[in-house]
Write the C-alpha cells for this entry.
Amino acid sequence: MPKRFINKVALITGGGSGIGHATALAFAKEGAKVVVADVDDNRGKETVKMIKDINGQAVYIKTDISKPTDVQNMVKMAVETYGRIDILFNNAGIPGLPVRLAELSVEDWDRVIDINLKGVFLGSKYTIQVMLEQGKGVIINIASASGITPTPFVSVYAAAKAGVIQLTKAMAIEYGSENIRVNCICPGFIETPMTSVIIPPDLESRDYSHLWPLTKPGSPEDIAKAALYLASDDASFVTGTSLVVDGGWLAGTSLPLSKGS
Ligand SMILES: NC(=O)c1ccc[n+]([C@@H]2O[C@H](COP(=O)([O-])OP(=O)(O)OC[C@H]3O[C@@H](n4cnc5c(N)ncnc54)[C@H](O)[C@@H]3O)[C@@H](O)[C@H]2O)c1
C-alpha cells in the first residue's frame, strides 16, 4: 500500500474513540507521526498503544479541547515532540442531550458549543500559528450532516456543526494564500460509541433500508478514508468545502413504495 504521509505529523483531537481512533490508526499506517489528544486517558493511551503495536509513531496528550490553556499545551507538545504539525484533525465532539429546545438547559447549550464549536476555533487558532511559520498545513474539521439538515432533538448540536461548516469556509478564505487548506467532513450516521447510545448495536429492529440509499450505517473507517483524502496531495486544490459522507442520507428520504416495472 502506498504511504502518503511519511514524515508528516498529524494532530488528532478526540483520538481515543470512534472516528478519531480510526483516523489516528489510518494516518499511522500511512507513515504519519500521530499526536493523539483526548480527555479520556485510557482511550487515548490505547490508541497510541495500538499504533506502536503496528510499529507506528504516536504520543498521547490529555487535552480538554474547550480549554485554551490545554489546547496551547497540546500544540506546544506536538511541536516539541515531532517538530511540526502538518495536519490538524479537529474531531473531538459530544452529542448533547436528546431534548427539544425549550427543555435544553443553558449549561448543556454552553457545553456543546464549547466542545463542538469553540474547540474547533481553539485547535485551529493555535495550530495555524505553527502552520504559518512552516509555510503550509492542512486542517480538517468534523461537522455533521446535522449541520446541514437537522433531525429532531439535536438543536444545539446542529447549530454547533453548522457553525463548524461556516468556520471552515472562513478559515479557508483567510489562509488559502498562505498555503493552508481547511475543509470539513459532514458524516451521516456512523457506528461509534457516541451513536451506540442513540441506537444500540444489538437492537433487533435495526432496519435502515428506508433511511439511507446505501441502507447501512457508516463505519469510523469510512470517515478516516475521507480525512486522509482531504489531508493528502490528491486534494491539493480542495479548500473551504464540506465533504458529505452519509450513505446518501442528505440526498433525500425514500418511501417504501413498490418498485416500478
Ligand atoms: N458518529 C456519528 O454518527 C457522527 C456523525 C456526525 C458527526 N460526528 C462527529 O464526529 C466526531 C467524533 O465522534 P465519534 O462518533 O467518533 O464519537 P466518540 O464519542 O466515539 O469519540 C469522541 C472522542 O472525543 C473525546 N472528547 C470528548 N470531549 C472532549 C474534549 N472536551 N476534549 C477532547 N476530547 C474530547 C472523547 O473522549 C472521545 O474519545 C464528533 O465531533 C461528532 O460530533 C459523529
